[in-house]
Description:
By secondary structure, this protein is mainly beta. 0% of the residues lie in helices and 47% in strands.
Amino acid sequence: LERGVKMPALETLDDAPWIPYEGFMRALVLRGNPGEVGELLVDFPPDAAEDNELHVHPASDRVVTVLRGSGTFVAVRNDERLELSLVAGDRVWMPRGILHSFFSGSEGLLVHSIHLPWIDLDDPQALVYPTSV
């Protein structure tokens, strides 16, 4: 976790081509060429869980920066469950294969996610649950 990361001011995003993401969230793909560095914004509604189960991204590393709102990042490292409170400016690095999930606070959570490399969101290796790891 890195605290106090400065990101450029966000322009109005209401007219951007957001897509539904994992049911209740929305995503805005900024760069999405498979095999290259990818970027997207993920907007969580208030008091939501990214997923009710921990999951992994087996084919890409992630760097996630909180742009707006607050929440909690949950991860498992060395068989220990870790919970980190997140606020705007915090950055989390997730190497591929780390069990994790995000939870938004009462004002929601907007994050910028860098994927190394980009895996299309509908690719089966983009998100895998522990039972199939």
